[in-house]
Amino acid sequence: MKISELDRARLKKWAGQRIPEHAKAEVAVGCAVRGSTAVITEERAPWDGVGQWTSRRVARLRRTEEGWQVDGADRNGRWYPCDHLPAVSRPWTRL
């Protein structure tokens, strides 16, 4: 089930509000939406101030008929289902 434009905007807004203002130069939360999934990432500035920011996948939200399902990422970036979390209708209110 494809993610609507309204849900895309809500997820992007949610991601932008996760980090306090004083820490935004060092860390950010990203949200990339494609088809029926949204990937939540943690973005970090380089520790020495030189080079590119790094990105680490943290969670994947999948839009299904039952609602939004959550998958976690292991240290190698592989996805695993979070079966202990129920499907929700609006994940931005619970994350």
Structure report:
This protein has 95 residues and is mainly beta. A five-stranded antiparallel sheet has the order 1-2-3-4-5. It is globular. It starts with a helix and ends in a 14-residue tail after the last strand.
State which percent range the strand residues make up: 35-45%
Q: What order do the helices and strands follow?
A: HEEEEE
Strand order of the largest sheet: 1-2-3-4-5
Globally, the shape reads: globular
Which labels suit this protein?
five-stranded antiparallel beta sheet; 1 helix; 13% helix; globular
Q: Would you kindly provide a brief summary of this structure?
A:
The chain is 13% helix and 37% strand. The chain is mainly beta and 95 residues long.
SSE blueprint:
Layout: H1 5-16, E1 27-34, E2 37-44, E3 54-63, E4 68-73, E5 79-81
Antiparallel strand pairs: 1-2, 2-3, 3-4, 4-5
